[in-house]
Amino acid sequence: MPASDRNIWDSAVSTKLTVRQTHETLHEHRVRLDDDIEHLERALAVAKELRNCSAPILTLPDEIILEIFSTLRDLFFPVTQQRPNKSASGSWLVVSAVCHRFRRIATTSPGLYSRISTRILPGKRVLAMMKASRPLDLDLDVGLPRDSEDVDMIRKYLLTHGPRVRTFSMQINNEWARSMTAWIRSIPRVTTLLMSNKTEEGYPSGAGSIVTFGPSITQLMPRLTCLHVDGVYLDFTSHIFLNLTELSLSHVKILNALVSIDASDLHTLLGRMKRLEKLALSSIRVGTSIDADIPLPASLRYLEYTTPSSLLVFSRFIPSPVVHVRVVQTGTPTYAKSSSNLKHSLKILASWLGSNSPATVVALTIRYNTVAAEACVAYWRNSSDHAAGAEPDFKLVRYVDENFGMSKLLLGHLYDRVTHIYIDADWDYPLLDGKRQWLHELGPLPNLRSLHITGPRTSLEPLNLVRVASQDSVAFWEASQLSMEDRACMGDERILRHWLSARSSRGLPLQVLALPAHVAVALDKVVADGAGPVEWRGLGLEVLIDYKA
Fold it and tell me: The pTM is what?
């Protein structure tokens, strides 16, 4: 080795490591070198450990690393996945093999073992995690038993650690329904119960799973306040509903009639629930026609209704001004704009947001996904609630396409009291469509004070726009480094200019007009080319332009 390449470590090693000495036997020489190799390997391990200590994640405090591990654990436990034939050998605990600090955090944190699923963990691992999580509460997910041995193992879990279970999820079929309902005797302190018969293949055909509870259920589970039912039939006269504050019913089945409940049953159920605060109904149908309106519990504050088809059931709910509503239609855009569906939608909006409780703030959000464009319209009765970030009083979510005019996006005649409109749309959606009259369709909007139009934020630096001075010394912004093909306007910008001009001519100029930069550039271009007789920036008392959009 050249002298210039030698360093202090070369000198130390060459001094310590020597060839076989004349007085050494072969065995002594090898023992000495083996000992030197062991010490060098230990020193190398220490050096690597010191180097790894500078990794960014190891600069975080233990509490943050624990949060990361908790996220890994939650991602590892699926909600509906069937347990594989081969048990997961490593699971999320592979993090403990990364370094000593990871191992210490993972093995000394009981909270990391408080969420357990029998679907993906072997029996011994389940018991070990239950023991390691003491004395914390447990979130236990029980998959569908394969045989009586699985049933016995689950019974063992509950007999040993049942009083610690706070959230209990179980998958049910007709074969094991009786065994599963008997388990509730071992979980007296449970607060959340989830029951489902959904598998990876979806919901089984034929008769639905039937679960019955005796009148003593309130004594067996006195702390139960949250119940989620998916594809399982429960007797709606059961006492299990009496103390609930949160109820979710999805793909409900009754006897041999798939996805169907009786309207009178729903009326009776809601009438008995005096403490209910949150209600979620998804993909339910009534077995008979609804002849009467359905009152909501006085304690209810949140109502969510999801359906792939008709809103007939929801239209029968008697509106309440204290209930925050979210309606989600998962049907196609063609169905969403059908005359029958629009009729029900208009009736619902008129009843919930009519003259007695009108909306003052409206927010329209349009986002494309792999299926279609999803349009969400949110309404607030008080502008102060919107400013404070409160939940909307009413929200309607639908799939739409490019043929939806503004009157089909913002339904009804509800906008005379509206003071603020927010529109947040994807770039590709033709928001400003010349075939329709845009916001003209909503009426005169006499109280409208501000209009905010935006879109998804760009990941580019906000240097794609430069200020250009014109001969009349009025500065406007022009696109630079980014062509109109790269970021087109949301349709015909002249539609917006004409609407602003019409409001101004009626003596109703906006107090605030907020636009994304590319729309402002297009409007400036119209004026610069002589196609705009009115300077659009003067049509609003305050113009806000987002140059990062």
Answer: 0.76
